[in-house]
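To the team - zinc ion complex, inputs and output below.
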Amino acid sequence: MPLPRLSRSWWPIAFLLLGAALVACGGSGLSFDESSGRLKVVSSVSPITSIVENIGCGRIDLIGVIPEGEDSHTYEPPAAVARALSQADLVILNGLFLEEPLLDMAEANKRPDAEIVLLGDQAITQGQWKFDFSFPREQGKPNPHLWPSVRLTMRYAEIVRDALVRKDPANRDYYEANYRAFLQRLQELDRAMAEAAATVPPQNRKLLTYHDSWAYWADDYGFQVIGAIQPSDFSEPSAQEVAQLIDQIRQERVPAIFGSEVFPSRVLNQIARETGARYVTDLADDDLPGKPGDRMHSYIGLMVQNMKAMIPALGGDASAMDRVDPGLVCRDGSHARY
Ligand SMILES: [Zn+2]
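Output:
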């Protein structure tokens, strides 16, 4: 049958319909199938989605709402996210002021019996909050990047397990078994990272990164974060700040500076050129390697990739990371959407 020919006056309507269809597609990734019978969980950044995925695995429906590669610090949730939040039984965020617009939207849209869990707020006390370069004390908001510290991620995993058990006690044994298997993986990861970090010559155990996400990690393995280039409003540094950094890098003989794909920066190239430090582009704190479904697309895969970028650039050997398994701990498949 030949297609009906549209008269000119119909084209605007056809475009409107097409637009509506595209919006509907974009939104469908952000809502739950009400009939699945599984616990519905919303999470925020992808490392947290991966931690929740490992413990809830085949018995929960999980949507990580902050797209990978997007700046989580300035993320404003689109209206479609409100639908997923209104359906969720559990909303698991990092907290520590990382996802404030998303937290506001969750509080405004959640079901009365749904629970919001802020992992960072529970994992450490206010006395353990770190204020530093991009998170100055006078602004009152601590560095929220707890998860690069595997030891703090172990705490996150425990808090996630407890929340899943609270909302879905019938599957307590399943969540507990996955938590134990995941904890064992995290312990292996911690040992491999300690081993790799120990191969870095002591005078090189200094980190200068663009994005300020290694503060808690550095404590675990005896590194010092000597600076972060990104200002606290997540803009580019001023010419004067860049000049100061160049002096500091020369004085401290920093062998490498680290950028990230999420925050491409021209000033890093300039700083590297003027100081002779090596510029490593691929550290990440919330952009998992590969695509969803890939073995490396996980929290553990992220840390393996980070160590492989960081440790050799500082003169160490990251081969211990090769023995770490980044895959899911459960065997029944997951219903997570990133
Ligand atoms: Zn970050």
